[in-house]
Design brief:
Elements (H helix, E strand, L loop, with lengths): L1 H12 L3 E2 L13 H6 L5 E5 L5 H9 L4 E6 L2 H13 L5 E5 L14 E7 L17 H10 E11 L2 H13 L3 E7 L18 H8 L5 E7 L2
Parallel strand pairs: 1-4, 2-3, 2-5, 3-4, 5-6
Antiparallel strand pairs: 6-8, 7-8
Helix pairs in contact: 1-4
The chain binds S-adenosylmethionine.
Length: 220
Amino acid sequence: MRKKLFRFAENAKRANIIEPGKPFYDKIKGNWNQLYFKNERPITVELGCGDGEYSVGLAEVNDERNYIGVDIKGDRLYQGSTQAIENQLGHVAFLRTKVHQIENFFEEGEIDEFWLTFPDPRPKDRDEKRRLSHPRFLNVYRKLCVPGGWFKFKTDNTPLFDYTLEVLASEFPVEDLVFTHDLYNDPELMKDHHGIKTKYEKIWTDKGEKIKYMKFRFNS
Ligand SMILES: C[S@@+](CC[C@H](N)C(=O)[O-])C[C@H]1O[C@@H](n2cnc3c(N)ncnc32)[C@H](O)[C@@H]1O
């Protein structure tokens, strides 16, 4: 608990974590590039970023985009924020909010690309609506994304992955869908991996689980 409190206090002082009480918190919607990044690069958002390995890792290999990791847990965001500061990555920021509230922080068409990395699988039927790939979330992501923007999704969890494929097939048509149930044995899709293993990806690959990956473009 003391570690968490220390991290929360640190987060409050950090410019690269947008959370309640920060100067831009109420003004950032539609203004990420103008107010925070001070450039016009396309924005990639990582949903449920946890320790932020993907946001930081992608920023390390690409300084042509801006990256924003979103998570509800401040102690996890502290980790990504620390990495971004230590590696002098000014084009990475973190937003502490529930994904449910994301429309309060982004304008329609403000996001160029999404990553959903190892979301909680929510296996119970009664929790279906809380899955971050449920159509109610996909509709919001589509609204906030530029027309034709990419959505990229990695998970260890086969039921969640297959559930998402079913949603796309039955009620949420998308373009250019490609997927694999074994990312590490798919040389073409592995190009999107960039050698970045998130904390949960490491946990599951160490247990011998295959990583599933899909990407698609939102219909305009
Ligand atoms: C299984 S962890 C994966 C973390 C990281 N992406 C990884 O691959 O290591 C799921 C993360 O999603 C976050 N999360 C779950 N539901 C969320 C929601 N509705 N809004 C924001 N964050 C959420 C949790 O706090 C947690 O950090």
